[in-house]
Structure formats: C-alpha cells, structure tokens
Design brief:
Radius of gyration: 18 Å
Largest sheet: 3 strands, mixed
Structural class: mainly alpha
Helix content: 55-70%
Strand order of the largest sheet: 1-2-3
Strand content: 5-15%
Shape: globular
CATH architecture: Up-down Bundle
Number of strands: 3
Distance between the termini: 29 Å
Oligomer: single chain
Length: 177
C-alpha cells in the first residue's frame, strides 16, 4: 500500500517537473473552471489533512487552504509532495489499522457534518484514488493546452489492469486454465 502511494505521488512530481508555471495556473474557459494548479493544491490539501488527522486521530478533508503558492507555483507543489512522500515513507504497516475519526460535510443544502470511524489504510486508499481522479482532470487540461503527458497519468489502477489484461494476445483454449 505504501508503495502504491509513493507511485501516485511520483506521478504528480513528474507532472510538476515538466509543466510551465503559465500552464500550471492557466484556467481554460469555458471548458474548465479551475487550473491544473488548483487540482494539484486540492490533492495536496487532502494528503495534508490525512497527515494532520493521523497525528490528532481526527481527519477533516473539508479544511483546505484554497489558493496560495501551491496553486500557482509548481515548485511550491513539488516541496509539498516531497513532504508528503517523506511522511508516507515513515509509516509502517502497523499504522494501517489505527482507528481515526473522519468528519465530513454531506449536504449542499445545509451544514450537515457526519463523523465516522475509519483507519489510515482506508484513508490512504481514498486519498490515492482521489489524487488519480484529479490527475485525470489535469490530464484533460494539459491535453487542451496541447501538452504531452505520460499515458498512465490519471489512469485508475483498475483501468490499467483491464488494459494490460486485454492487450495480451489470446491464448488457445487448451492453454487457458
């Protein structure tokens, strides 16, 4: 699990190393309402919420920084990705099942905060999946900017498995077991 998180963060780092500051902060209207930088900041906010929540045993993804250097500077985002990477590298499998309290707003009509019990493992799965989802959005923004990204950037792990399994040549029935 930790290696998969490091792979996800490495994808973000590679994107940040290759993007210009202009492309990172550009909002391509009317097709998009936010920049690649806003998506990256949102990803980082979730990882930082988990880091803070792990130390306090109370995770709250609704608390976000919004705006700021991470949203406008690939270099600032790289520094935060490095901090998150260091934190993940220091975790151990023993940390996975430690109980955490997760609070989240669940309504758009009125403030309604629900609190549930979760674990670090569950929340790592969530923030990783959440990052990949936003990488897919960044990929679309980059495509609109005529930028080239690695084909696997923003590709869900289950989709990658599907593509690998379906790109292999078919075996004769006698060999399928």
């Amino acid at each position: 699990m930790l290696n998969s998180q490091l792979e996800i963060l490495a994808q973000g780092h590679a994107y940040l190393e290759g993007v210009t500051k202009e492309d990172y902060s550009q909002v391509i209207t009317p097709n998009f309402i936010s920049s690649a930088g806003a998506h990256m900041r949102h990803i980082i906010d979730h990882y930082q919420s988990l880091m803070t929540g792990f130390s306090t045993q109370k995770v709250d993804y609704d608390y976000r920084l919004r705006g700021g250097d991470i949203e406008n500077s690939p270099t600032a985002a790289i520094k935060k990705i490095a901090e998150i990477t260091t934190w993940i590298e220091q975790l151990s499998p023993d940390d996975f099942n430690k109980p955490l309290s997760l609070s989240s707003e669940v309504s758009i009509k009125s403030k309604n905060v629900q609190t549930v019990t979760t674990s670090l493992a569950r929340e790592l799965i969530f923030v990783g999946s959440h990052a990949v989802h936003h990488y897919a959005m960044i990929s679309q923004i980059s495509f609109a900017q005529k930028s080239q990204l690695d084909q696997s950037f923003g590709l869900a792990p289950s989709t990658a498995t599907f593509l690998r399994e379906n790109s292999q040549p078919a075996q004769p029935k006698s060999m399928q077991n």
